[in-house]
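step=encode ok
step=design start
structure_in=
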């Protein structure tokens, strides 16, 4: 029976280690494309074509939005409204060159408007709400996840070398 105990312990350590990494496995990434021609004129403000596709994104807390610059000019995105007093509080992309991306992970629920600082007419919105999908209950280890995985690996090494 010495192998049964060892494998039971090994299984528990592995399950605990995997559970530490699981919360991030359920986070999603949504892509928003900066549409071609958005920076050269305001034609994307009205009509069937918008400056961002999709223009409004619905995500869950912990999800990531990745903006891909499909335009032929560089853009800089920031949160807020073009003529508001508070901009760049949550994120500021810096320069996004054509054919490159910028990603930001939204941790808290809320409605976040954003715009292109170089062209004030390019405006979009990210709505971060509670998850509408399947609810998973897993331990939240936060910054300790790496430590938990390390302890799990050390535990596996010790158990596999131990003689019961």
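sequence_out=
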């Amino acid at each position: 029976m010495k192998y049964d105990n060892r494998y039971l312990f090994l299984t528990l350590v592995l399950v605990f280690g995997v559970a530490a990494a699981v919360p991030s496995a359920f986070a999603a990434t949504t892509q928003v494309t900066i549409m071609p021609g958005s920076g050269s004129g305001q034609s994307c403000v009205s009509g069937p074509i918008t400056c961002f596709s999709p223009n409004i994104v619905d995500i869950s807390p912990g999800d990531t939005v990745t903006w891909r610059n499909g335009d032929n000019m560089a853009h800089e995105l920031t949160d807020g409204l073009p003529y508001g007093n508070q901009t760049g509080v949550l994120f500021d992309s810096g320069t996004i060159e054509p054919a490159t991306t910028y990603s930001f992970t939204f941790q808290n629920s809320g409605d976040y408007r954003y715009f292109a600082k170089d062209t004030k007419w390019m405006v979009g919105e990210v709505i971060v709400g509670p998850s509408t999908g399947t609810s998973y209950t897993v331990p939240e280890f936060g910054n300790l996840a790496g430590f938990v995985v390390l302890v799990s690996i050390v535990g596996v090494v010790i158990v596999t070398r131990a003689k019961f």
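step=design ok
step=annotate ok -> The first strand starts at residue 29 and ends at 34.
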